[in-house]
Amino acid sequence: MKSIDSITRRRALGLGLALGVAGCAPKATKELERMTAIGRPSMFDWKLHAPEEVGMSRAGLENVRAAIRKYVDKNEITGAVAAIARHNKLVWYEAQGVRDVTTGEPMRKDDLFRMMSSTKVVTAVAVLQMMDEGKLALDDKVNRFIPTFKDTKVAVTPPNAKEASQVQLVPANRDITIKDLLTHTSGLSSSGEASLVNKIERRPDDTLADYIPRLGSAALDFQPGSKFRYSPLDGFDVLLRIVEIASGMPADAFLRERLFEPLEMRDTYFHVPPEKQERILTLYARKEGAWSAQPSLLGLGPKYICGAGGLFSTVRDFMQFEAMLLNRGSLNGHRILKDQTVALMSSNQVGSMFAEWFPAMTAGHGFGLSVRIVEDSAKGSGRSVGAFGWGGAYGTESWADPELDVAAALFIQQPVTAVQHDFQRALRDAIVDRAAV
């Protein structure tokens, strides 16, 4: 039998060649070195390990706690659940604050969070699973699967236009592709120029199969591939419908069978079953000096599966997911994605377009297939170059940092980005051995 080390070296060499062919040779070399050096199976469990085992300090982890506590004490967040793993060993898993501001009931580790756009990375993995099986390609036109996305138009709108009659529709230079949707470069429903003429709405009883074909008549906000502009909902809902068509399975059944069960994501749902609904956190916002319960931004019908923002989940489940990505597609004996597919997912696909989109937030970053990627560690808020992940509108954030061999998640239900940044900096400062192994 071949040793784990020799198998790892062979897989790393294959990954290096794949990335080199894709034009990512420097990253390939670094990734090859990391995988060869690690030489360990991708096993992860929920035993809490001493921080010293993985080159972290207890005092540093106390600062992680304090970084979150500060925002609870200032009444900027009601509470949080966070977890950190390094070298596939869990070193931090804690709930802070309250889940009910009226009773003071403490936040629980198994509380269910509205994931919002954190859902998008899950949808992207489902798309990439279909790619690994040869059922689709990133450059496939969307109309290969959904014929209504043919002969698409682009909206051209004069500055300050307020009427649909002022919008000129011109032919798209090319059809939109799966990669365009994964990288938010399609121009579909990005709240831009076409919003004046696009009046396509979801109906209460719609499914993906009902709604997505109607989007084929929507005008695009810009020529495909020419800009990065975030598509909050429709882009990734189209992708999840493509997964349904390519796999021949309903989206929720596909994800349950192919992703959630293999990764033991036992509490991840689009529609939470009745026996678990009491675990769903109330949404609170601060109004006139007090916390007030708020409705969700995302109103979905009972049949609709929203690949862009519809999941509920826990920190535990998303740590399983991030550990799989950190281990290049494999966890606890289950291969979810090919090594080279995760490498492609976590490589910048849009050049400088993401960094230039909203520089106050995106400078120093690239964008891969559904994920933000750190390219300048000074802009990474504690993450290393190559770290990748995404978050949700209410404050769920999870990521993998290959350079530090860290997977982490911090879930809140208020959109307070400062706590995320402080958490990430405290995490990095808690690492006293910066080596990747």
TrEMBL record:
Residues 64-427 form the Beta-lactamase-related domain. It is an enzyme of class 3 (hydrolase). This is Serine hydrolase domain-containing protein. Pfam families: Beta-lactamase. The keyword Hydrolase applies. One of its GO terms (molecular function) is hydrolase activity. PROSITE patterns: PROKAR_LIPOPROTEIN. It comes from the Bacteria. InterPro entries: Beta-lactam-related (IPR001466), Beta-lactam/transpept-like (IPR012338), Diverse_Enzym_Activities (IPR050789). The keyword GTP-binding does not apply. Keywords: Hydrolase. Its EC number is 3.-.-.-. Signal peptide: none annotated.
